[in-house]
Amino acid sequence: MVGGDRDIWNQGPGIILKTIDGGTTWTSYPGTVTYSLYSVYFPDANTGYASGDGGTILKTTDGGITWTAISTGAPGILFSIYFTDTNTGYAVGDGAIILKTIDGGATWVVVSSGTSTWLFSVFFPDKYTGYAVGDDGKILKTTDGGTTWNVLSQISNSFLNSVFFTDAQTGYVVGWDGCIVNTTNGGGFPMGFNEMPEKSNTLSIYPNPASTHVTIETSEIPARGHLSIINPNGQQLITRQISEPKTVIDLSALPSGVYFVRLTNDKTVEVKKFIKQ
User: Fold this and answer.
1) Average pLDDT for consecutive 10-residue bins of the chain (277 residues)?
2) Which of 7, 66, 62 is nearest to 33 (CA)?
3) How many whole angstroms separate alpha carbon 265 and alpha carbon 267?
């Protein structure tokens, strides 16, 4: 277990505790570091990692008895660390930083997160699929082992502190003000479609399949509507602010494939799929 001052604006002394009797008693290992630690993960019984202030990551290979500091070059706080195996791991933190290692923490590279959000938690249900969450309700997803990350559809404005998946499809995110978010389809395309109220019977897309242009029409005139064209990875490729019931979108820059139209209004979300030939 690792700990410290949970106020991210104040740095406190690092603490490392270990139990071997299911939490009845704990042994302290003081003096390893002098700053706060925020996350710990063990990919096996002997090898473990902890992360915290100053961009430093600690590693143990003897079950937590001794720890070695690893310099990552990251300037800020690393709030969460997770390994998919003993060699491949990820750490996230302030400034939207995502770090990845493939050599057991010896070296770390910065991966673009595609956002400026502070990230507080990272979790991988398998070696390719991972999620990171942070402030302003941001949820990120990767399906290629952390090489690229997509910002998923926003479903909350809360600071999101932790993410966990029980299997590839079922996951939970928690945050400030008692926020709890659940997905049962691996985050969806993107996450949030199943969690928000929908009125899909008012949205029409034609032609479908489409080639160069597509017309998107709704029977309700949106007062402050926001229209997005989204790919299956959750990337918003085209966005429009609309105030008319009919909108024509130029698709010439998009490759062939399946896309989603997402139309949000004051209190509703409409989603439909179309094919670009």
Assistant:
1) 39 75 87 80 95 90 91 88 96 93 95 89 94 90 90 77 91 87 74 42 85 87 73 77 87 86 74 84
2) 66
3) 6
Whichever domain contains 221, its CATH number is 2.60.40.3080
Distance, in Å, from the CA atom of 196 to the CA atom of 123, rounded to the nearest integer, reads: 24
**161's tokens:** 């502190």
* pTM of the predicted protein model: 0.66
- Give the CA count within 13 Å in the CB-facing half-sphere of 201: 0
Say how far apart CA 218 and CA 116 lie, in whole Å.
Answer: 33
Among 274, 257, 267, 266, which Cα is nearest to 217's?
A: 274
Query: Domain limits at 23?
Result: 2-183
The answer to whether the bond into 197 is cis (omega within 30° of 0) is no
